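2024-03-11 09:14:02 INFO receiving multi-entity request
2024-03-11 09:14:02 INFO entity count = two
2024-03-11 09:14:03 INFO echoing inputs for audit
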Amino acid sequence: MTRKRRLRAGDMPTERRGAALPDRSADVRHTAWRLWRSMSRQRALLVGSGILGVASVALTATGPLLLGRATDLILTGTLGATRAGSSGIDGAAVGRVLVSAALVYTIAGLCAYAQAWLANLAVQRVVQKLRADIASKIARVPVTYVDRRRRGEILSRVTNDLDNLSQSMQEVLGQLVIPLFSIVVTLAVMFWVSWPLALIALVSAPLSVVVVRWLAGRAQPYFVEQWKQTGRLNSHIEEMYTGHAIVRAFGRERQTMAAFVEGNDELAEVTRRSQAVSGAIQPAMMFISNLGYVLVAVVGGVRVAAGAMTVGDIQAFIQYSRQYSSPLVFLASMAGMVQSGLASAERVFELLEAPEETPDPAVPVQDTPVVGRVTFENVTFRYHPDKPLIENLSLVAEPGHTVAIVGPTGAGKTTLVNLLMRFYEIDAGRILLDGVDITSMTRSRLRSKVGMVLQDTWLFGGTIAANIAYGRPHASHEDIVAAAVAAHADRFIRTLPDGYDTVIDDEGSGVSVGERQLLTIARAFLVRPPILVLDEATSSVDTRTEVLVQEAMSRLREGRTAFVVAHRLSTIRDADTIVVMENGAIVEQGRHDQLVDAGGSYTRLYAAQFAGMTSGTTSEPPVALA
Amino acid sequence: MVEERGVAHVTRSRRERPLLIKLLLPYARVYARPTTAVMAFQLVQTAASLYLPDLSADLIDKGVLAGDTGYVWRLGAVMAGVSLVQLVCAVGASIVAARVASYLARDLRASLFGHVQAFSARELNRFGASSLIVRTTNDIQQVQAIVQTTLTLMVAAPIMCAGGIVFAVAQDVRLSVLLVVVALVLGGAVWGVLWRMTPLSATLQDTTDAVNRIMREQIMGLRVIRAFVQEDHEHARFERANTLLTVTSVRVGRLMSLIFPLFTAVANVSGVAVVWLGSRRIESGAIGIGTLSAFLGYVMQILAAAIMATYLLRMLPRAQVCARRITEVLETTSTLRPPAPPAPPVLRPGRVELRGVGFRYAGAEAFVARGVSLTVQGGETVAIIGSTGSGKSTLLSLIPRLADASEGTVLVGGVDVRRLDRTELSRAIGYVPQRPYLFSGTIASNLRYGDPESTDDDLWQALDIAQARVFVEELPEGLDAPVAQGGTNLSGGQRQRLAIARALVGRPDVYLFDDSFSALDYVTDARLRAALARHTSSAAVIVVAQRVSTIRGADRIVVLDDGRVVGTGTHHELFSTNVTYREIVLSQMTEAEAEAA
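2024-03-11 09:21:47 INFO inference complete, emitting structure
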């Protein structure tokens, strides 16, 4: 058991080993309590499993007694036969005892099977529920929850921690009852048969626990070091694979390999040590158990010779002493599993207890056709409470108009989009859609009116066609192709191995960033929502394609209100309103020519782009931008 | 569609048993001696543990029943001694096994890592970096675990089983027949469970992957899911995967639940049979009562062996999958062949030539780029411009040999890059990739990638040109400021400027900029190019870009469309004569602006 746990622990991410073990008892109690509550529906199964386990142990415990009984019967028979030459072994009596022993063992086996099966069923259901809870939790946390954390860290909670928790629960709940109860029963029977021998066994088994703990303690630092080295080596590997092109282009293979070999050798050494020390645990256990065996045989032998007990008792005793020491060691090894499982449970529950989005209004406003007037009224928002991001911003987008938002990085352009979509909740002010406060409608209604193309393109594992049809799952193939054609994605899709049925993954390997942007644009085209939000939608697409996409988009924009966040000014020249943002506030607003003539921020931005175009040499640009 | 992929996995991974063996076989030769030592230790260890019931039979028959207390004590001492021998051998076996398993994993990791390093961008993309990382780390860990388990438990299990029978035969031949039956039944049970378990485990692995993948997608794609109001769809998708995983887990669990009770019941009932048949033998005077006790001990030994085998049962299917994934990588040969010695010296530093170069991905019908010929002399700046997917970056990647051309020849310094020494080649080239990847360490350690020997002054100079001096100076630690893995603690523009500085540090003869200015604002872009022009006056510079403003000052501009060169010339020449170029330019600026330069 120790071995298995160790190996399984190998799958766990290295970062949280050791560090995250819950040592604060209040938290542990809270976690354990949550875990217990999460099992509430499966308690009947667990109780049933427990009862079956107890039955199995009780039955198993009577087995050696019966066998010992049979041995004694045989012995009296043979001794009697040699002495009196009369009856010999009482075959019928021995037969009766043996048949009942066989029956007892068979039923015990069936009980044990049913016990494990029920426990497994219960655990699987609990874990299934936990997984479902987490999935729906993810759908309810505010976007800021995910934005503020490293995604890999959240992912690790929902995958690695949940896996670990499920395995620990399976092992602990599935296998706790039998060892625990068999220790009690076996000890009782042993004392009943012969208390002096029972005392010997009582000393030897805890001794093995002590030795196991000692060895495990000796191995612990090696394990800690092993995980540290593993983490170090893994991150080296990760870097070198991710930066493969750099390594090759700069001819750093030799140095990279040297660094790898160093870490690799260190890891092998420390692994060898940890395995060698922990590998001694099992032989040591065996040795102590054997010594107990020898002692029981010798002391028992002496006592039989003295007439204090029968040979059958010794035989039963030897079996008992084995039955008793192995579950004890197993329980000792389970402590680590419980610890690691609780640590994972804590991280899982932390996620489950995270604050959620404010609920949608109980009585949302009526779903009326959207005209498309969007109004920001004195909107204030801070991502970090002490850092103003958007302060007191007001803005009106008339129905059917295109509003372009420009400004230096960090000016709050994307934040504005996040607020409109209610990914972030504003701290003060109002955002109105056709005069209705967006907080008075459900989020899904609001979002279904807005089609958006994000700067950060996201594709899920599936076919190209399914990715385009994401917002309209039942779209016909013709519609999908039409959307792709409009987004100028059709041509490159057709060069892929399986065309529209080419399967891509969420890393989008084989599809360039620009191509991914075209796919996400096609996705928005297919939905045809009343309001469009394009957040740097074409930043990685080449300008010529961009112009073509823009033309298609301006057709799409007809009659629709559109927000366009752009870096390249050339793409937004024709917007009805250009909003220039700096440090979370609107500094200028107007049409392209008006703004160019105004000689303000926009002029400087525009000149900077233009200056960049013309000079290419040394001339100092008119103004430095953030 | 995602689910369908999962099914494909299952059918594929069903029959692949020999892969693990194939993967490990070469190492069996390397580690033949320690492996033999493990076997020897295990043999002695097992023999000792089997000898114990034998001795206890003697103890009962000749000591207890004969009433010879002295004999009981003497034999007790012998048994203790035998236990000690067993302890020593078992520990010995475990120590040597730990050595074999960890060194084998080390060798396997090194060979995999070296293999991946030799990959071209083509092979790397086929697997994806993240998949390769898992294969090099976690998958090999699994293989190590199974080797360790095999050497410590699995070697002992058959020895124990066979030894148990041998010792039993020595005690009583007729009663031993029963033990052989028990061993066969248990062996059959192990095999049967394994047979059922292998496909189930593969399914379990796949369904787990599917659930994790959906979880991952729902976190990564949080915004898109909400923006398109697809929460219900995603919920249903997850529920399906979750149910499938639960159903599979329950099935696996049911099979697992069977193992232990089944084996214990078989062994216990066998014990009953031993006593029953034994009583007949005792009655006929063929054996003593102690032998009966010994036989019960042997049954337990065989049971222990069977239970050991089940450890492997649990690990084997997963290790098989890992072995397949490792083998897949090892069997993929890099399309980049190392140059055959002797590598010729660079003939004309700072000259890059492409002769009829074409590239296409293996299996793809269309070329990414084809028939490209181009010569760039030292001191010349050539820009390549074209639409997304026109093959610009691919062409550029052929020069530092991130991939090899499918047809035609790429020459650097007048020599075919496939014949050049790799160190020589990379020293000649300063490459700035599209995605500016930085390594964990410090700013200085990243910059020294270009030239490990460079001084701090060199680094500052490079930073100066790359317009990165100011922000580096503002960092409290300056050059020693920490850089997180991938450079994630820096902004995109900062990363890009550092990547440019990194290429500058080595003072190469050839500069390759793959759309390296896109994350910079126009002002910084302009300044950087001005500084760069002074620094690289004698080098050949090839710039791939999308912004016309970035490249219009180039000595020559090459216009690519659909992987073919459709025009070459200066900005003015092309603007007036080349339709594609004109379209590109006008997509970024007005006619007046374009003419103004």
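2024-03-11 09:21:48 INFO post-check: Residues 1-23, 611-626 of chain A have pLDDT under 50 and may be disordered.
2024-03-11 09:21:48 INFO post-check: Residues 21 and 339 of chain A are 7 Å apart (CA to CA).
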